[in-house]
User: What shape does this take?
Amino acid sequence: MGRKRWRWSQLISWGQATWRLNSHGFFGQQHFRRYMRSTLACIAVFVGLCPSITSSQDANDRAHHIQNNVLGIDGHNDTVQRVVYENVDLGNRLSDGMIDIPRLHAGGVHVPFFALWVPTYYKGSEAVRRTLDLRDAMQRVLDKHPDQIELATSARDIERIVGQSKIAAVLTVEGGHQIANDLAVLRMYRRMGILSMTLTHFRSNDWADSSTGKPEHNGLTDFGKQVVHEMNSIGMIVDISHVSDKTFYDVLQVTSKPVIASHSSCRSMSDVPRNMTDDMLRALARNGGVVGVNFAASFLNQQDAEELKRKVSNENALEPNLAGTELDQFAAKEYFEDKGEFKVGHATVEDAAKCIDHIVKIAGIEHVGIGSDFDGITLVPYDLEDVSKIPNLTATLLNRGYSEDDIKKIMGENFLRVIREVVGN
Ligand SMILES: [Zn+2]
Assistant: This one.
């Protein structure tokens, strides 16, 4: 937008000016012919490029228009960690990080899922305490900016809040260990406005195996199955990102409601256990669920995945035996160490579009969304570095032939359908 475009009249008057210069003997005859030849060749190349420049400009304009009008849902971010550790004010456009309220509006993401993530080395009641700390931090954001952001606890809430041009915040818990093996805690989380729970995080817990942890239970235990039943009955969405493949299939056996993979990508593009195989994508489609494509560069591009594998294998697997403030200090140290590693990977916005395309082919257009994982990832794709860049993804999808209706499904309608079906209106 606002980009200066050459017009034919400008080219013609430039040609006339050149001709006049020569008639005043400015160039020698031979030089002039060579000069005109190379200039005409440039014009021919330029004219040849014109349609593609114009079409990419059109796609950008249309993408911004679409993102301004979609009900944009992003299935996962880790921005609450920034509020806890850095006390950032999400009402301002921040100079670093990937999400704040102004950038959510710029990207057309009106319904971010804010994860209350607690590392797996918080055990039992320590994990519950930490979850309450995060819930409290999120409450401070809601209380500080009631004119800009509001807690959404139903599909109707989401539509009402977005209709008022505010951000509709959906809260989730990221890690089944955070219920401390107690269904009463799970029920109280729901009462606190938390609409979804990822069953595991980085490690297996007492009742479910993680994709990156030791397989301890061959999937889901009997108590794990009770957790899924309870979530179905209290209107909480089961999130299978992070779980092992076996846990995933066990969940699909017992759930009576659609599930989501809030932030996972395609294993056929990046072979990491956090991503979904084609068979899992087909099974998720049969369940009526949705996968939100994760924008971590290493989940979208094999070269970046190899770098992640090296990093994870070098990582200290230490699980500290600490409690209270000492445990919080340990977690804070880890947070600031990770934060220093932010960079752009080999992946680009094209890879994110390719992954969406792949899911559409395997599972269908009704079963894909976005789950950026922004503020929780350190390696981001080029042209998709923060939430304000989402229109670049929309433009890429337009260039790949997606219609406006298709894009609306991907950008939010599919997730909204699951919220309506599981959480209610
Ligand atoms: Zn995660």
